[in-house]
Design a protein that fits this description.
By secondary structure, this protein is α+β, with helices and mostly antiparallel strands. It is built from nine helices and nine strands.
C-alpha cells in the first residue's frame, strides 16, 4: 500500500533535505499531529552515521532512554532522495517514506513524497487521499516559517554553518553529516549551503518568482485528489446556499404552517451544510498557522 504527495516550498532543496533527515525536531514541532509527534516523547536520541560517501549518507537513530528500542533508518541518496524506514519486528510491519526533492530555483523546491507499508488497516483503507494530504500539509507547514526564516537569516549573516550551528551529539549528527557531504560533493550544484562552504547562496541573479505561502498555490492546484475535492466542496457550498435561499422564499410565500416550518428547517440545515463546506474549502486554501 502506498500514498503519494506533492508540495512546492519557499526554500532551497538542501534545507528540505536537512528537515526530513532530522528526527529530533518531530516530537516538539509536530506535537499532536496525526503521524507527527508527542512532546511527552521528546528525549535525547542515540544516533549513528553508518556511511558518508559520494553516493550519500546512511544513518540510524533511536530514543536514548530505551536501549532495546528498534533502530529507525535514514538514508540520503545523492543528490536529492531521502528514505526513512521503521520496523515493528513483532508484527513484521515495515513503514517507509521516500522524499524526493526537486530544485525549482533559488529559494524554491518541490517535494515528491511516497509513504508505503507492507500491511493495511481499515482506517488507512477507508481514509480518502485528500484527507491524508490535509494532515501532511499541516505537518510540513509547521516547519515552513522556521526553515524559510532560518535560510534568510543565514544568507543575511553570510557566514558558514560551522560558525552558526551549535550541534548536539544527541540530535544533530545526521544533519551535520549531510552538510559535510555538500562540502565534499556539492560543487556541481548551482547553489548549496554546506557545513564549512557555500556556493551562490546570495546571488540575486538566481532568484526567481517566489512561491506563495498559501496552501492552494503550493499544493491544491497541483494535486489531482485535493483539487477534485476542492471543486466538489465549492459546488456543495454554492448548492447549499442556493437551496437555503429557495426554501427561505418558500417559507415566506407558503400559507400552510407545516410547509413553512419544514421549509425553514431544511433551509437552516442547508445553511449549516454550507458553513461546513466553506470551512473545509478554506483548509484547501490556507496554510496552517500556530495560535
Amino acid at each position: 500500500m502506498c500514498a503519494d504527495f506533492i508540495l512546492d516550498l519557499p526554500y532551497d532543496q538542501t534545507y528540505l533535505v536537512e528537515n526530513v533527515i532530522d528526527p529530533a525536531h518531530v516530537a516538539i514541532s509536530h506535537n499532536g499531529t496525526r503521524g507527527g509527534g508527542n512532546r511527552k516523547n521528546a528525549q535525547p536520541l542515540e544516533m549513528e552515521v553508518l556511511e558518508n560517501s559520494v553516493q550519500g549518507v546512511k544513518g540510524r537513530w533511536r530514543g536514548a532512554s530505551k536501549s532495546n528500542e528498534a533502530w529507525k533508518y535514514v538514508d540520503f541518496v545523492a543528490p536529492n532522495l531521502v528514505l526513512n524506514t521503521a520496523y515493528i519486528e513483532k508484527k513484521d510491519w515495515t513503514f517507509k517514506r521516500a522524499l524526493y526533492s526537486i530544485p525549482l530555483g533559488k529559494r524554491r523546491c518541490r517535494l515528491l513524497a511516497r509513504g508505503y507499508r507492507n500491511f493495511m488497516t481499515w482506517g488507512v483503507k477507508l481514509r480518502p487521499r485528500w484527507l491524508d494530504h490535509l494532515n501532511t500539509n499541516k505537518i510540513l507547514e509547521q516547519d515552513l516559517p522556521l526553515i524559510a526564516g532560518q535560510q534568510a537569516e543565514i544568507e543575511r549573516l553570510g557566514r558558514s554553518l560551522k560558525e552558526l550551528y551549535l550541534p548536539l551529539k544527541t540530535s544533530d549528527p545526521l544533519v551535520i553529516e549531510y552538510r559535510k557531504w555538500l562540502d565534499k560533493f556539492g560543487s556541481s550544484l548551482p547553489f548549496y549551503q554546506g557545513y564549512s562552504t557555500f556556493k551562490n547562496v546570495d546571488n540575486g541573479e538566481l532568484n526567481s518568482k517566489p512561491i506563495l505561502l498559501d496552501r492552494f498555490s503550493r499544493h491544491t492546484l497541483i494535486c489531482s485528489s485535493c483539487n477534485q475535492a476542492y471543486q466538489v466542496t465549492n459546488r456543495v457550498k454554492q448548492g447549499c446556499i442556493g437551496v437555503a435561499i429557495a426554501l427561505a422564499a418558500v417559507a415566506i410565500l407558503a400559507d400552510d404552517s407545516r410547509i413553512r416550518i419544514a421549509a425553514i428547517s431544511v433551509s437552516i440545515a442547508a445553511i449549516v451544510m454550507s458553513v461546513m463546506a466553506h470551512t473545509l474549502k478554506t483548509r484547501f486554501e490556507h496554510s496552517y498557522t500556530r495560535h
